[in-house]
Amino acid sequence: MRLILLGPPGSGKGTQAQRLVARYGIVQLSTGEMLRAAVAAQTPVGVKAQHIMAAGGLVPDEIVVGIISDRLDQPDAAKGFILDGFPRTVPQAEALDELLKKKRIKLDAVIELRVNESALLQRVETRVAEMRARGEDVRADDTPEVLTNRLASYRSQTEPLIHYYSERRKLLTVDGMMTIEAVTGEIDRILSAIGAVEEAKAAKAAKKAGAKRTAKVAKKAGPPKAAGKAAKKAAKPAAKKATRGTKTAKKAAKGSRKASKGAKKSARKALAGSRTRAAGKTRKTAKKVTKKRAKA
């Protein structure tokens, strides 16, 4: 799974991100942590970021994108990731889209945790009052005043991402005012549906690829019709030869029959002639006998 969680401060993104990491075995990519890790490792991008931060400047988007790019190349990000704290603006989202496109990585979903800001402020006020009542120290960044400023920053810079990802059909909204368990259950339901769709697409693609391979093999072997034509073509000379042989045999048989007829005819003529000659001799002999008797 490759996800982005959107939502104002106090919406529960951190809690849900940790649960998703545990459930799917993916990594949570925090831009702050990635920057510190890159600086510590003294990567080329980390060195650039270090000089800018040391001078008190804000790290440009291109450097942050470069750090994310390096992080996505690490083996533990192969199974998926959750981006935490990035993108915060539309230009950052566009830069991220370009990066993922170059790496041929598909973003599965952007999950927005939608909350009621007034209810969030009330929660912080209640929590701060309870901590002070127990004598506990209150974090400087965990006060209603700080939250009000952070919410205003979110509305002006990050909220436009909701429209950006909605147009790209990546946005899925969950009611962040539900209980933590209910929010987790709804996110799981959404991701399961996405997984089922992806599995169906993969199966369809595999089937299509199998059909293409079969067609390729069949094409290489030659289509049945072509094979039939080739066989017929190859058989034609033999058939002609056989036909010529048959014709020759027929002619020979016809000649033999003619010869036989001729022989028979000749035999009949010879027999008839022999009979005629024999009859003639008999008549001559009879005449001679008659004459001799007459003389006597």
UniProtKB/TrEMBL annotation:
<comment type="pathway">
    <text>Purine metabolism; AMP biosynthesis via salvage pathway; AMP from ADP: step 1/1.</text>
</comment>
<feature type="binding site">
    <location>
        <position position="31"/>
    </location>
    <ligand>
        <name>AMP</name>
    </ligand>
</feature>
<dbReference type="InterPro" id="IPR000850">
    <property type="entry name" value="Adenylat/UMP-CMP_kin"/>
</dbReference>
<feature type="compositionally biased region" description="Basic residues">
    <location>
        <begin position="278"/>
        <end position="296"/>
    </location>
</feature>
<dbReference type="GO" id="GO:0005737">
    <property type="term" value="C:cytoplasm"/>
</dbReference>
<keyword id="KW-0547">Nucleotide-binding</keyword>
<dbReference type="InterPro" id="IPR033690">
    <property type="entry name" value="Adenylat_kinase_CS"/>
</dbReference>
<dbReference type="GO" id="GO:0044209">
    <property type="term" value="P:AMP salvage"/>
</dbReference>
<feature type="binding site">
    <location>
        <begin position="10"/>
        <end position="15"/>
    </location>
    <ligand>
        <name>ATP</name>
    </ligand>
</feature>
<keyword id="KW-0418">Kinase</keyword>
<dbReference type="InterPro" id="IPR027417">
    <property type="entry name" value="P-loop_NTPase"/>
</dbReference>
<feature type="binding site">
    <location>
        <position position="150"/>
    </location>
    <ligand>
        <name>AMP</name>
    </ligand>
</feature>
<dbReference type="InterPro" id="IPR006259">
    <property type="entry name" value="Adenyl_kin_sub"/>
</dbReference>
<feature type="binding site">
    <location>
        <position position="134"/>
    </location>
    <ligand>
        <name>ATP</name>
    </ligand>
</feature>
<feature type="binding site">
    <location>
        <position position="36"/>
    </location>
    <ligand>
        <name>AMP</name>
    </ligand>
</feature>
<comment type="subunit">
    <text>Monomer.</text>
</comment>
<feature type="compositionally biased region" description="Low complexity">
    <location>
        <begin position="220"/>
        <end position="229"/>
    </location>
</feature>
<comment type="similarity">
    <text>Belongs to the adenylate kinase family.</text>
</comment>
<dbReference type="GO" id="GO:0005524">
    <property type="term" value="F:ATP binding"/>
</dbReference>
<keyword id="KW-0963">Cytoplasm</keyword>
<feature type="region of interest" description="NMP">
    <location>
        <begin position="30"/>
        <end position="59"/>
    </location>
</feature>
<feature type="binding site">
    <location>
        <begin position="85"/>
        <end position="88"/>
    </location>
    <ligand>
        <name>AMP</name>
    </ligand>
</feature>
<feature type="region of interest" description="Disordered">
    <location>
        <begin position="207"/>
        <end position="296"/>
    </location>
</feature>
<keyword id="KW-0067">ATP-binding</keyword>
<feature type="compositionally biased region" description="Basic residues">
    <location>
        <begin position="230"/>
        <end position="268"/>
    </location>
</feature>
<keyword id="KW-0545">Nucleotide biosynthesis</keyword>
<feature type="binding site">
    <location>
        <position position="178"/>
    </location>
    <ligand>
        <name>ATP</name>
    </ligand>
</feature>
<feature type="binding site">
    <location>
        <position position="92"/>
    </location>
    <ligand>
        <name>AMP</name>
    </ligand>
</feature>
<protein>
    <recommendedName>
        <fullName>Adenylate kinase</fullName>
        <ecNumber>2.7.4.3</ecNumber>
    </recommendedName>
</protein>
<feature type="compositionally biased region" description="Basic residues">
    <location>
        <begin position="207"/>
        <end position="219"/>
    </location>
</feature>
<feature type="binding site">
    <location>
        <begin position="57"/>
        <end position="59"/>
    </location>
    <ligand>
        <name>AMP</name>
    </ligand>
</feature>
<keyword id="KW-0808">Transferase</keyword>
<dbReference type="Pfam" id="PF00406">
    <property type="entry name" value="ADK"/>
</dbReference>
<dbReference type="GO" id="GO:0004017">
    <property type="term" value="F:AMP kinase activity"/>
</dbReference>
<feature type="binding site">
    <location>
        <position position="139"/>
    </location>
    <ligand>
        <name>AMP</name>
    </ligand>
</feature>
<comment type="function">
    <text>Catalyzes the reversible transfer of the terminal phosphate group between ATP and AMP. Plays an important role in cellular energy homeostasis and in adenine nucleotide metabolism.</text>
</comment>
